[in-house]
Specification:
4 copies of one chain form a homotetramer. The longest helix of chain A is centred in the middle third of the chain and has 24 residues. Chain A starts with 90 loop residues before the first helix and ends in a 15-residue tail after the last helix. Helices cover 34% and strands 13% of the residues of chain A. In chain A, strands 9-8-7-10-11-14-13-12 form an 8-stranded mixed β-sheet, with helices on one face. A 7-stranded parallel β-sheet of chain A has the order 3-2-1-4-5-6-15, sandwiched between helices. In chain A, α1 packs across α3, α3 runs parallel beside α14 and α8 runs antiparallel to α14. Chain A has 2 domains: 233 residues, Rossmann fold; 151 residues, 3-Layer(aba) Sandwich (Rossmann fold), CATH 3.40.50.720. Chain A has 508 residues and is of the alpha/beta class. The first copy, chain A, is built from 16 helices and 15 strands. At the C-D interface, α8, α10, β9, α15 and α16 of C face α8, α10, β9, α15 and α16 of D. Chains A, B, C, D: Belongs to the adenosylhomocysteinase family. Chains A, B, C, D: GO terms for molecular function: adenosylhomocysteinase activity. Chains A, B, C, D: Keywords: Hydrolase, NAD, One-carbon metabolism.
C-alpha cells in the first residue's frame, strides 16, 4: 500500500458548523478583490533558504542603516520587545501593505468572520517559518483571529519585506526576520521562535522543512506536545516522506502542497498565464506563428501548451509517460522526441521536474536566436552548467536574459539562467497566494481539532472536504453561484449535502 | 481507509518482458487504422440487459427466418456444434466485419504479436458476457491468441450482431447469442457458457454484472477455481463494491471502468465530439451564438463545454462541487444556478449522474424552441416522466426528437427522451472501443498471472503500469514518439525506466 | 478601375423611414427561432439546373402519380389555375412546412411587419427562378406582403418540394415547378413565368442565371421595362460580369452573393460547423490527434481549420496567396506544400475554388485509410476522374462514402465523390438560408426604389447600409443589444447615426 | 464613387522581374530572426509631433552634455558634416543596435539582396520624417542600398535614439534629429532636410503629415518635381484625404496605413498579444474567470476578445455596427450595451476609435477595483477629463497605473491615463515594425517607378500585388512554404501566376 493514499476516511470526518453552508455564502469580502498597486512577492520559491530572491525589494529605503537587527534594542508602541525586525518604525507602511493584501484575499477574511465565535484555534501555539510578505501577514493575523498564538521566522534569507515584519511586530506578533540575514542569523531567528521560556509550540507551519529539521535536531522532545506539522513545499514534503519511510516521523503531518485546489492554481492556471508574461517581459517576442516545444505534459506543461496554442504558436510536446502523451495527442499537439524538432523550433520550454532534459548536445543543435527557458521544478532541467565553457561567450543583454554565443556567431537566448521563468521573470497573482494561505489555515485547524486517532504518525493529504472548502471560499470572487443538492438527490447519490462530493481517487 | 484506494503497491509489481519496451515500438499495426465503412455499435450501454438498443442492426437480412436459434441444429464447417447463433451461414460476412475492425484496433493486434511467444493466458478458461460486435470479436480472438479458452454470451438481448456471432462460432469459439433474445433466452445463453461438462471457467469478463450474478446464484462453488473477475460497467462495478462491502466478494475483482485511459476516452475526449454530433444529427441547429447551459462540470461536462465554446456558443455551467465549480470559472464559464438562466438559454445539457436536475418547473419556464438533452449517466437527469401529463402534447418530429407542446403553443425539444444523447444519436468511434478492449485484455492477463497474495478478495483499480501500457499501445496511431528516461534521469526521479511514472494519487 | 468597385456612393444613399431604427428593434419574431423537425434543403447548389440534388425528398409520397403536371388540369380552392405543380392537394402539408420555416426566419417576418404600411414593392412585378423550398416560400410570400406580384419557376429540376409548390399555388402565387422535371419541362416552366399575356416583369430574382439567360435569348425587349436583376449564385454572378464586360448588360444587376453578411455565413460560420458534421456523419471518425491538411485558407478554409484545431486535430495549411498564408501562420497552422505532408496526414480537405489541387499522384502517395473530401466551390478540386482506372477498385461502403482500393490493398476514403461535402453530407441551417433570403429581398427593394441614375448598366454589390440592415434584422435571435451612437459621437466620427458605419474597403 | 476605392487597376500593373518569384525564395535572411536584447521603440505613436513618448530612452547616458546640437560643430570620420545629431561619437553603439535590428527584419534585408542589381530607387531623392530608431535605420539604409539618396528628420521630438541617429550620420546619411528637440528645433530639422542647395527631393516618406505640411506651406513649388508621397499614420492619411477632397493634392499619395498586411499586424495580431501583456505588466492580475467588456469589435477588439477568451475570461462585447455585432455573436460573445454589465465587470477595454465611450456615469457605476483601459485609436474613448474633479482622489500606484478613489472608498484602476495601453504599457514586436517598413519601401518603389498616368493626384491604397509581396517576404521567418499555381490552374482561375490573387474587394 502506497503511503500516498493516506487520506483519512471521508466518512469519519465532520466539519464544524461554521464551515458548512458554502452554497450561499454572502459576498461580503468580494468588495475589493483586485490585485493592484504593487508587485507581490512570490511565496513558493523555497528551494533552499539561501536561494537568492531576485525580485525581492523593500518598499522603503532602509539600506543606510547598517546595524544588524540582532544588535538593536527595539520596542513596539506597547513596549513589547519580543521580536527582531529591521526597523519597527516602518510598521505603518507595512500595515498599509497588509490592508491592501487583505482586500485581495477574501477567503481568509471570510474565515476570520465565520470562525470568530468558535475560535477553532483557541489554545493553538503555532510556530511558523515561511516567506514574510503582506500575504503571509494576512495569514498570520487570521490565525491569531482564530485564537492561535504564533511565533514566526523567515524561510528565506532574502525574501522578508522589512516593513511587513515591522507591522506584525507592532501588532504584537513575535516575528524574527529581516531581509539579508546571514546563515547564522537564519538559524538564530528560527531558534528564537522555538526556544522560549514558558511557551512551547503545539503546531508547526513550515515551508521547506528547515523549521521542522531544527526542532528534530535540537529539541526532539518538543514533539511530544506537537499535534501536527503542515508543510507546503515540494522539498519539505519530500523530507517528511523520507522521515516517514524511515519510521522517524513522530507526529502527523499534512502535505498541503498536493491538495487539488492548490495544485491546479500553482500549476495549470498560474502557468497558463505566466508563460506568456515571462516570455514577453524578457524578450518582447511575438507568439503568433512561432514553433515551440514544451518538454513535459503535466499540469505545468498543459498550461503552457494551451496558452501558446491560443496565441497562434505551433506547439510540439515531449513526454515520457504514455498516458500524458496520449492526452497531448488528443489535445492536438504532435508528440515528438526533442531531437526531432530541435533544429526548427524558436522556443524550448522545460516543465518536467527532471534533470538534463535539455543537454549541451541539444543546445549545440538549436538554431540561431532560439529561446530556452524552464517552467519546471528543478533548476537542472536545462544543463546550464554545460554552457560554461571557454568557447562560448555569455552576454547579459537584459535582466534575466543572457545570450550564449557560439564560435560561429549563433546565439541561444537563455532566460533566468535556467531557473524558474515564472518566478524570476513574472509575478504570482495574489489570488494564487490566497488559495495557498487558505489551504494552510484549514490544514492547521483540521490537525489541531482532529479527534484522537484520526491521524497517525504519517503524512496525509488535506481531506477532500477541506479542499472543497478552500475552493468554495474563493467562488464569490467570480460571482459564482453553487447549486445545492436536494435531500432526494443527496440520497440518490449517497452523498452528504455538504460534501465531500468525490471519491479520493477522482482526478478532476 | 477507502476501498477505492485498493491499488496494488507499485513497487511489488513487475511486468513481463514482452510488455516492456513501449518507447520504441514498431508501428506494424498502424497501417489500417481508420474507422470507416459502417457504424460501429456502442459498447457501453448496458444499463440493463434488456434495454432497447436503438441503433443495432444486422448487416444482412435474416428476419425471414423465424425459428428460434435454440431450436436449430447447426454445425460449423469443421463439424463443431458447441454454439448457438442465429445463422452459422452468415459467418463469412461477419468475418469481413471482424477484419475491418482489426485494422482499427491496432493495440490488440500489437498485443497478439508481442505475446505470441509467451502465451500469457495459456491455461486460462475465460467466460465472457459482453455485447457481441466486431470489436468484441477482435478482443475474444486476441484472448484466444494469447492462449485462453473462451466461452461467450451477450450482455444485452438486442445488441448482438448475428453475422459476427456466426463468424466466431465458425472459428471455433463457443458463442451463445443472437439479436432479439427473450429474457429466458438471455439466461439460457449465459448458463450454456458456464455450465459445461468437463470445462470450468477460471476467469470472468463481465459487462453489467449479470454473468457474475448468475454464477453467484447458481454455481457459487465455481468461485473456488476462479482467479478473478474483470468488470467494465459502472453498474457492474457498483455491484462488486456492494458485494465487497457485504464481505461476500470471494475472488479478486478488477474495476477497469475507472482506469485513467478508459475514463478520459469514454468521457472527456469522446463527449467533446459526440455532443456536437448528437445535436447536429437530431436538430441541424447552428451552434454559433447559441446560449447553452451545461449541468455538471465533470469530465463529460468539461468535454461538452469545450466543444460548444469552440463552436461559438455562450456556455453557462451549474455545479454542486466547489472544486469543479472553480475549474469552470478558470476555464471561462459563468457559474450559475439553473434558475438564473433557464429563461434565456437555447440548449440545456445534463452531465451530472444525478436525478431530477432538470425539473418540470424548469421545463415550464424554458423559452420556446429550447432543446433539452442528457449526456450523463442516468436516464433520470431530466424529469421526463413529469412531461407525461394531459395538458402537454408530444409530437415525434424525427427519430429521437420529440416536441413537447405547452397549451400556449410553446415547444420544448426533447432529444432521445432524456436517454444518453451520445449513445442514442451519435456513434462511439472504434478508437474508444479499442481503448476499452485493450484495458480488459490487460486486466485479464494481470489477474491471471498475479502471484499469490498480490490481490485479495477486494475490488482493485488497474495497476498504473498497465494503464500506461494501454496508452502506449495506442500512441503509434498518432505517429507519436515517446521519450525514454536515461538511467541517470530515472535514478534522479526515483522511477523505474519502464514506469509507472506517477504516484497513484496523480490527477492527470 | 475594376468593375468590382462599383458600389454606389454611400453619401448618395438614403434608407426609407421604416428601415431606420434598428438599434432598438423589438424582438417580436424572436419567439420561435429554433430550426427543428425537418432537414432543410440547401439553397445554394445551383451549379447547373440539372445537377442531381442528393438529399432532395418529398415529404409525402406522390410517386404513384405518373402523369406529368403539364398534362394535368388543376385548380386551387379559389378556382385559380395559373400555376403548374405536382399536386395541388398537397397544399396543406406544404403550408405547415412554410409555417415552421417562418418561425426560423425572423428577419423576413420582421420585414413584413415593418414595411406593411409603406409597401415598398408596390407595383413590382417580380419573376423568380430559385430552388422551391419552404424557406423560399417564406421569401416569396414576404415579397407579396411588401406589395409585389410574383411568378416563380425552379432553378433546379430535382430540388422542388412539391408540397411547398402546391401551398404557394393554393395561396395564389403562379408557381411552375415540380420535382423531377425534364430539361424541356425546365425551360417550359421558366417560359410560363415570363411569357404571360397582360403581365410583364419589371424585376428579376435569379439563382444561376438561367432565367436571365432565357429572357436575353427569347425576349430581349423585355429589358426595357426591367429595373434590375438580383443574382445570388457564383455562377450567375460570373455570367453577369461577362455580360457587363462585353457591354451587353442592359439593366443594373446586383451581386448579392458577395455581400459581407451572406459571405461570412455561407463560408466561415457555416463551414466551421459543417466540416465536423460532414466528416462525422460519413465516417464516425474521432478528430482528436488526427493530422489534417486543409488546402486553401480563404473563409471556408479558415472555418475548417478553426473547427478541427478546436477538436484536437493537428492542422496543416496550403496556400498560393501570401497574405492568406501569413494569416495561417499567425493563426498557428504550419504552412506547407501538399507534398510535404501527403504521406502522413489522415484527412485532406480542399477549399480552394481551384482545380486539380489533389492529383492522382497525391492520391497514390496517401497512407492507407486516408480520407479525402472537398469543401470548396468546384467539383474538380480533387481529380476524381483520375481514379477511374482499371487497377483501382471502387467500393461503395455507405451513402456518399467510397473506398478506392489500390492493388496493394491500400484504401483511400473518398467522400461525396469529390463534390461539396457540406451540401452532400451535412445540412445547411435555416439561419443561414434566412440571411440569404433577407439579402435578396432587400436587394429587390433597393433596385426597385432607387432614384434614376443611382444604378447604371453594371453589376453592383449590395450597398453597405443594406448589408448592415440584414445583419441587424438577425441580431434579436441572439438577444443581442446594439449600441446607438450619440449625436456627438456620430459627428466626431463623421458618420450617419444609422450607418453605413464602415468605408467600402473595410475588411471585417 | 468613393475615393477609398482609388486602387490602380490590377491588370495595368506589372512587377519588376526581381520581385517576382516569391514562392520559392531562399531563406538567407532567416538566420537571426529573433527580437532580443532591448525593448524596441514603437513606431506608430505620432498623434502629434509633440506627444510625450513615455518609454523612449537613450541607451547611453548623454545627459551631461547640455549644448544644443544646433550649436555644435560635428564631423563624421570621413569629414562630412551635413547632419545634426546629439553626439556623433555614439555612432558605434548605434551601429550595433542597427545590426541587431537587421537580424530581425529579414524582409528588408531580402529586398536589399534582390534589388541590388537593378537599383529600383536609382535617382530617387527621398526626404523622410519618421521616428528615428534602429528599425527606421534599417529602412533608410535599405532605401540607400536600392539607389536612393535620403535626408531624414524626426517626426516626434522625444522618440529619437541619439546613438542610432549618430550611426546614420557616420554612414553618410544626412540626419537632423535628437531626443528632446524644442518645437523650433523640430521644424528647423525638417527644413534642413528640404531646403538644401543643389538637392531637391522627388519623393516624400511621411509619418503624421508634418513634413508634407511644411513643404506645402514653405516650398509649394517643390511639388513640381515630386513624384509622390508615402504616408503611414492615420493622422497623416486623414490630412491627405482632406487635401484631396479640397482639390489641393498636387501629387499622387499612397496610404500605406490601410494595406491589408499592415492592418492585420498593427491591429489584430499585435493587439491579441499586447492586451495581455499590457494588463499583466501594469496590474499582475489573473485573467482566468474575470468578467471583461470589450467596446468595439473591429480588428483590435477581435484580437483582445480572442486573447482574453483563450485565457479563461468571460468576455462581453459592445458594438454600433450590426455586421461586427453579428460576428461577435457567432464568435461566442454576448453582445450587450455597456450599461447592462457595467456593475459586474472586472475590466473594461475600449477599442472603438470613438470618443466618450466610457463616460463619467459609467465610471461612477463600476464596482470597486474595476480596471479601465484603452486599446483604440483615440485618447478620448474614456472620458478621463471627467475624473479630474475635487471629490475624486487620484493615487499613482505604479508607473502608468492610477487609482481613482471615490468618496466611499471605491477605487477604479485607470491605466495609462486612458492613452493607448499597448503603446504605453507594452512593446511593439520588431516583426510588426518590419511589416510596416517593408510596406513603406515598396510603396516608394512603386510610386517612383510607376509609368506616367498610372497614378493621378489622388490618394491610393497599396496595389494588392505589392501587399502580397510584403507578406511573401515575411513567410520565410515561419519556415512557411507557399504553393505555386500551375499554368493550367492559373488559366482556370483567370489569374496571373504571380498574383494578385484576390479582387480588390476581398475581405481576408
Amino acid at each position: 500500500m502506497e503511503r500516498w493514499d493516506s487520506n483519512v476516511g471521508t466518512s469519519a470526518f465532520h466539519m464544524p458548523e461554521w464551515m458548512i453552508q458554502f452554497a450561499d455564502q454572502k459576498q461580503e469580502f468580494n468588495k475589493r478583490p483586485t490585485k493592484i498597486g504593487r508587485r507581490s512577492l512570490s511565496r513558493s520559491i523555497s528551494q533552499s533558504s539561501t536561494d537568492s530572491y531576485s525580485s525581492a525589494a523593500s518598499y522603503t529605503d532602509s539600506s543606510d542603516d547598517e546595524t544588524s537587527p540582532r544588535d538593536k534594542q527595539q520596542k513596539n508602541s506597547k513596549g513589547n520587545s519580543d521580536f527582531c525586525v529591521k526597523n519597527i518604525k516602518q510598521a505603518e507602511f507595512g500595515r498599509r501593505e497588509i490592508e491592501i493584501a487583505e482586500q485581495e484575499m477574501p477567503a481568509l477574511m471570510a474565515l476570520r468572520k465565520r470562525a470568530q465565535g468558535e475560535k477553532p484555534l483557541s489554545g493553538a501555539k503555532i510556530v511558523g517559518c515561511t516567506h514574510i510578505t503582506a500575504q503571509t501577514a494576512v495569514l498570520i493575523e487570521t490565525l491569531g483571529a482564530l485564537g492561535a498564538q504564533c511565533r514566526w521566522a523567515a524561510c528565506n534569507i532574502y525574501s522578508t519585506l522589512n516593513e511587513v515584519a515591522a507591522a506584525l511586530a507592532e501588532s504584537g506578533f513575535p516575528v524574527f526576520s529581516w531581509k539579508g540575514e546571514s546563515e547564522d542569523d537564519f538559524w538564530w531567528c528560527i531558534d528564537r521562535c522555538v526556544n522560549v521560556e514558558g511557551w512551547q509550540p503545539n503546531m508547526i507551519l513550515d515551508d521547506g522543512g528547515d523549521l521542522t529539521h531544527w526542532i528534530y535536531k535540537k529539541y526532539p522532545n518538543m514533539f511530544k506536545k506537537i499535534k501536527g506539522i503542515v508543510e507546503e513545499s515540494v522539498t519539505g514534503v519530500h523530507r517528511l516522506y523520507q522521515l516517514s519511510k524511515a519510521g522517524k516521523l513522530c507526529v502527523p503531518a499534512m502535505n498541503v502542497n498536493d491538495s487539488v485546489t492548490k495544485q491546479k492554481f500553482d500549476n495549470l492556471y498560474c502557468c497558463r498565464e505566466s508563460i506568456l508574461d515571462g516570455l514577453k517581459r524578457t524578450t518582447d517576442m511575438m507568439f503568433g506563428g512561432k514553433q515551440v516545444v514544451v518538454c513535459g505534459y503535466g499540469e505545468v506543461g498543459k498550461g503552457c501548451c494551451a496558452a501558446l496554442k491560443a496565441m497562434g504558436s505551433i506547439v510540439y510536446v515531449t513526454e515520457i509517460d504514455p498516458i500524458c502523451a496520449l492526452q497531448a495527442c488528443m489535445d492536438g499537439f504532435r508528440l515528438v522526441k526533442l531531437n526531432e524538432v530541435i533544429r526548427q523550433v524558436d522556443i524550448i520550454i522545460t516543465c518536467t521536474g527532471n534533470k538534463n532534459v535539455v543537454t549541451r548536445e541539444h543546445l549545440d543543435r538549436m538554431k540561431n536566436g532560439c529561446i530556452v527557458c524552464n517552467m519546471g521544478h528543478s533548476n537542472t532541467e536545462i544543463d546550464v552548467a554545460s554552457l560554461r565553457t571557454p568557447e562560448l561567450t555569455w552576454e547579459r543583454v537584459r535582466s534575466q536574459v543572457d545570450h550564449v554565443i557560439w564560435p560561429d556567431g549563433k546565439r541561444v537566448v537563455l532566460l533566468a539562467e535556467g531557473r524558474l521563468l515564472n518566478l524570476s521573470c513574472s509575478t504570482v497573482p495574489t489570488f494564487v497566494l490566497s488559495i495557498t494561505a487558505t489551504t494552510q489555515a484549514l490544514a492547521l485547524i483540521e490537525l489541531y481539532n482532529a479527534p484522537e486517532g484520526r491521524y497517525k504518525q504519517d503524512v496525509y493529504l488535506l481531506p477532500k472536504k477541506m479542499d472543497e472548502y478552500v475552493a468554495s471560499l474563493h467562488l464569490p470572487t467570480f460571482d459564482a453561484h453553487l447549486t445545492e443538492l436536494s435531500d432526494e438527490q443527496a440520497k440518490y447519490l449517497g452523498l452528504n449535502k455538504n460534501g465531500p462530493f468525490k471519491p479520493n481517487y477522482y482526478r478532476y
